[in-house]
Design a protein that fits this description.
heterotrimer, A mainly alpha (280), B mainly alpha (337), C alpha/beta (429), A: 280 residues, MetI-like fold, globular, C: 429 residues, D-Maltodextrin-Binding Protein, domain 2, 2 domains, 4-stranded mixed beta sheet, 19 helices, 45% helix, disordered N terminus
């Protein structure tokens, strides 16, 4: 019964992924047959300043978007976890942001962040606050992309609400008897209880931030102004499909893998450690 | 459901509270403590929470509202520079105009075909794979689950070009088969895993007794496993549908004829034509977003009513979030009863 | 319920398979079918569709399938992917600045032989500048369809309202700045500019004519370039003038205003007086009813110069239907074919004999001053033919844009562009 799945996985993902990996060591322009190039592709991309800019941007982006996302998810999850009247509506409002198609989401934000007519700047101006140029200004462009990615906390929120529910009421009762106030209860019970989930969520967000950055960059900034929002996936896409340098694009992909490999390994190891006992 | 760790953790947390109290004493009755004391008075706390919850929801709903407002501004004049709703009137005609400017109607039809086909095939393949995982002996299961987890880590960008070459070799370019192909592996391996996790909870005895009655593997899958995993099926269907509806890069690469373009590519084309014609662009976004929102809301309503089946425990990376939320909500309802 | 799902799934699988087969089954057996890829807005697509229909009426045994990918970036990525998969379009229309990578990899079938055997087309019928732009290492790779150069589109009503005379054909840089300043206005006195004098894309392809007019060069040796020459005094001076239009004179929308509403959109809505664009906007501008407009030549500098814009039909070397493809290309470049496209306003014919033709110089259709496109032809220059030219242009544009909008200093921009483009001069693929 798993035959279609295994067949599809091998044919559509595993085999192509290996081919992509092999490409990192050849010179290939898709028009003439590939020729062996060894590690020269890596030497070429390491010599290119734009590659380092993109690498730095990618790290800054992922390491600011993911923690913000996890923090936001935590705060909203704690706010919205008790079953009360209207809570379903609140959760739906937060969650729906995360299910919008990427293309639509990027275009909506392009409008929201419009420096002159966008509702965000109109609101800021109405409140008498400064109105940044967001995506247009090289100093704020990457930060804008971080914000756009970080407010999508729907999935994390649901996960943490579910995780919070697994905490038995007895420990909260015990804390109440001891006279612990809310802050302490949070600090000493809720947070330690959620810590494993939070960590895994953080790692997941880190990986997803890198993987899913392509569509917003294509639609919202095109990598600019200058190279301010050129992230590795976008650079890779441009190298391969616009400039026909598939070997170098594949080498960049290997670098991306090297970046996200350790967090994924860590996540796998932690999951196994924490949940070994009740994994069947 | 109770975890072995629970008692130990609970006591640890309870004892840790006391030193904390001692620590905070030197601060005396500072403003902070006064706030904390106020916070303790439940009524104010509850009110505050309520206000906070509504403002968070409003904050998240606001972009969609703004989207709607932006889509109804008249074309050709500079957009308003104030927060007023409709200073220049409401232009419902934008929604007719986008269907005139771009072949949106046809693109929506194409997207519907692709998404429905993709979702249906996914339901079959993902549930088969999940069923196989749940029934196989431990060694092969570990192999399968490992494969599924591995698939989640490979970025789609890594496989575009080889896939493109593959599809062209198979003569599938410019056909919807190329777009729906990922359904073969359950669209995303997460969906197969979702089935695995929900089948996994079905106790062996049910299968055993059915097997004694002479039911084969297919019958077990069809008569026992699937009906028991109805919420998962709904969730997988919605997730898969949304995946194909939202898919942007695949149709951009694999489709050639403009008549076959899907709505995601259509939106990009509209943006390419006139990047700052905001009202029309936003109207098209509304058209693309609406079905997704409606589907999710419907799913929530259906699963709310269907409280008979739900998860008993929730573990990270084992339960799809949507599934979790919905069943988590219904569980408390049931427990209160 | 499960059964229904299963049956539906299989039905849909089958229908998907049918859809996959549809184009081949719909084709009559004796017909050859060729694909033709373009990139343009709906008005462009309309013009080429008319051309294709005329051709199919004339030559029924060949079916041409027109494919359009709006957006130059998306178009090039699609073309790349198609070539990579070994399924390129049989014919594609591409700018001379972009065909290098394909020519360098022998992906385009040279058309010298076809042209030599043709009964209806002669090499002498076409402008030599356009032919030269598509000549790669001595071989003519593609058949130029059009040729034009950037001009200044201006809103006559805004000139009238400001009491200014329309631009003359011999205006100079200083006149231009003066006019642009007088047309940049805050109409309602709220301190925000509502009407801009000038709109231009901050890109090398727009700045290049001014560099050449000033006696400058873009690369050190146009015949065998090895580096950018933008730091040379004459080039730098022209670039400084170009960026000052925005960051000093403020007659061009700043980065924020441009992101909020593009210059093209402002012009269409009557809130921008002059726009530097190529011929491609004409079909869209002909739909303007709210005001009258015309074209003026670029303001003059020390020398006369402008930049060549030209698109050509290329035939893929991997196409099994090169003969059929040529028949379409041949038809498209006959008087009849080029007239069809010229009438849409989209293109200026690459045929010398057609340039004077009423189809193009139609006194009734706007722009009335179309003759200036012809007047500029002797002064046209082209970017060097390099396989990596797109990389070089990209590196320059990224910096130029920031200098134009005052985000970095011009000299820093030139230095960065020179450094980042260096590797693309040395690596010839």
């Amino acid at each position: 019964m798993a035959a279609p799945f295994v067949f599809g996985a091998l044919l559509l993902v595993v085999l192509p992924a290996f081919l992509s990996f092999a490409l990192a060591f050849v010179q290939y322009d898709a028009l003439s047959p590939p020729t062996w190039r060894g590690i020269e592709n890596f030497a070429v991309i390491f010599r290119r300043e734009v590659f380092w800019i993109a690498l730095r941007n990618t790290l800054v982006f992922a390491f600011s978007a993911a923690p913000l996302q996890a923090l936001g998810a935590l705060m909203i999850a704690l706010l919205l976890h008790p079953e009360r009247r209207g809570v379903r509506v609140h959760r739906a409002a937060v969650y729906l942001t995360s299910v919008l198609p990427d293309v639509a989401y990027a275009l909506i934000w392009l409008w929201l962040l419009n420096p002159l007519y966008g509702p965000i700047n109109l609101t800021l101006a109405w409140l008498g606050l400064p109105t940044p140029a967001w995506l247009v200004d090289p100093r704020t462009a990457l930060a804008s992309l971080v914000i756009v990615a970080a407010v999508r906390v729907g999935e994390g929120m649901l996960l943490l609400i579910a995780a919070r529910r697994t905490a038995p009421d007895s420990i909260y009762d015990a804390a109440q008897i001891d006279g612990a106030d809310r802050l302490r209860t949070f600090w000493h019970i809720t947070l330690p209880w959620l810590a494993p989930w939070l960590l895994l969520l953080l790692i997941r967000d880190l990986v997803m931030a890198i993987h899913s950055s392509l569509t917003p960059v294509i639609l919202m900034t095109g990598g600019g102004p200058g190279y301010a929002t050129t992230l590795l996936p976008f650079l890779m896409y441009e190298e391969a499909f616009t400039h026909l340098r598939l070997g170098e694009a594949a080498a960049m992909m290997v670098v991306v893998f090297a970046l996200i490999g350790p967090p994924i390994g860590l996540a796998g190891w932690l999951t196994r450690r924490w949940w070994r006992e009740d994994a069947a | 459901m109770q975890r072995r760790k629970t008692p130990q953790r609970a006591s640890g947390a309870a004892t840790a509270v006391k030193p904390m109290q001692a620590l905070s004493a030197p601060f005396g009755s500072t403003a902070l403590q006064r706030i904390v004391r106020l916070w303790r008075r439940k009524r104010i706390g509850r009110l505050l929470r309520h206000v906070l919850a509504w403002s968070v929801a409003a904050l998240y709903a606001a972009p969609l509202l703004w989207l709607l407002v932006a889509s109804l501004q008249p074309v050709g004049q500079p957009p308003p520079r104030t927060l007023a709703w409709f200073p220049q009137g409401v232009a419902w005609s934008n929604y007719l105009e986008i269907f005139r400017v771009a072949p949106l109607g046809r693109q929506i039809g194409n997207s519907l075909l692709v998404s429905v086909a993709g979702a249906l095939i996914t339901l079959l393949t993902a549930s088969w794979a999940g069923f196989a995982m749940s029934r196989l002996p431990a060694s092969s299961r570990r192999w399968l689950v490992g494969l599924a987890l591995l698939l989640m880590l490979i970025p789609s960008s890594a496989v575009w070009l080889p896939r493109y070459v593959l599809f062209s070799g198979m003569g599938l370019l410019d056909s919807y088969a190329a777009l729906v192909a990922p359904a073969l592996l359950g669209t995303r391996s997460l969906l197969a895993l979702m089935y695995y996790w929900s089948f996994h909870r079905i106790s062996c005895e049910i299968y055993d007794s059915a097997s004694l009655d002479g039911a084969g593997v297919w019958a077990l899958w069809r008569r026992i496993a699937l009906p028991l995993a109805r919420p998962t099926t709904l969730a997988v269907a919605v997730l898969a549908f949304t995946h194909y509806w939202s898919d942007f890069v695949d149709p951009l690469l694999f489709l050639k004829s403009t008549q076959r373009f899907t709505i995601a590519v259509g939106l990009r084309m509209l943006q390419q034509m006139d990047a700052t014609n905001w009202p029309l662009l936003m109207a098209a976004v509304v058209v693309m977003v609406a079905p997704v929102l409606v589907l999710y809301l419907l799913l929530q309503i259906i699963l709310d009513k269907d409280a008979s089946l739900h998860l008993r425990s929730s573990r990270l990376w084992r339960d799809a979030p949507i599934h979790l939320q919905l069943s988590a909500g219904s569980r408390t309802k049931e427990e209160r009863r | 319920m499960i059964r229904i799902v299963g049956v539906l799934g299989i039905a849909l699988l089958l229908s998907a398979a049918c859809v996959a087969l549809e184009p081949s089954s719909a084709r009559a057996p004796e017909q050859t079918s060729v694909t033709f890829l373009i990139s343009g807005d709906p008005a462009d697509e309309e013009a080429y569709r008319t051309l294709v229909e005329h051709f199919m009426a004339e030559v029924p045994e060949i079916r041409v399938e027109l494919l359009n990918i709006p957006g130059q970036g998306d178009f090039r990525r699609r073309l790349t992917a198609d070539f990579a998969a070994g399924t390129p379009p049989d014919i594609f229309l591409i700018n001379y600045r972009r065909y290098g990578p394909f020519a360098a990899r022998d992906a385009i079938a040279p058309i010298d032989a076809f042209l030599a055997q043709s009964d209806v087309l002669r090499r002498e019928d076409f402008y030599p500048q356009a032919l030269a732009a598509f000549t790669w290492r001595g071989e003519l790779m593609c058949m130029p369809q059009n040729m034009s150069s950037p001009v200044i589109y201006y809103n006559k009503d805004l000139f009238d309202a400001a009491g200014l005379p329309y631009p003359t054909n011999d205006w100079r840089w200083d006149d231009f700045v003066n006019v642009a300043q007088m047309l940049t206005r805050d109409l309602n006195g709220d301190g925000e500019i509502d009407q801009y004098g000038f709109g231009v894309e901050a890109a090398l392809v727009r700045a290049a004519p001014f560099i050449w007019m000033n006696g400058g060069e873009i690369v050190d040796d146009p015949a065998a370039p090895t580096a950018l020459a933008l730091a040379e005094p004459a080039s730098r001076e022209a670039l400084a003038w170009f960026v000052s239009l925005q960051n000093a004179h403020r007659v061009v929308p700043d980065a924020v205003a441009e992101a909020a509403e593009s210059s093209l959109s402002r012009f269409l809505n009557g809130r921008l007086a002059m726009l530097m664009e190529s011929r491609r906007v004409v079909p869209e501008f002909r739909r303007i009813e709210a005001f009258d407009w015309d074209v003026a030549p670029l303001p003059q500098g020390k020398e006369q110069a402008s930049i060549l814009h030209s698109d050509a039909f290329c035939i893929a070397a991997a196409s099994p239907y090169r003969e059929a493809a040529w028949r379409f290309v041949e038809f498209a470049n006959t008087r009849v074919g080029q007239t069809i496209l010229a009438r849409s306003g989209r293109t200026i014919p690459s045929r010398i004999d057609l340039a004077q033709d009423p189809a193009f110089l139609d006194a009734q259709a706007r722009p009335h001053n179309s003759r200036i496109f012809l007047d500029a032809i002797p002064t046209l220059r082209a970017f060097p033919a390099l396989a990596t030219w797109a990389d070089i242009e990209g590196a320059v544009d990224a910096e130029l844009k920031q200098a134009f909008y005052g985000q970095i200093a011009l000299d820093d921009a030139i230095a960065a562009a020179t450094m980042r483009s260096a590797e693309f001069f040395s690596r010839q693929e």
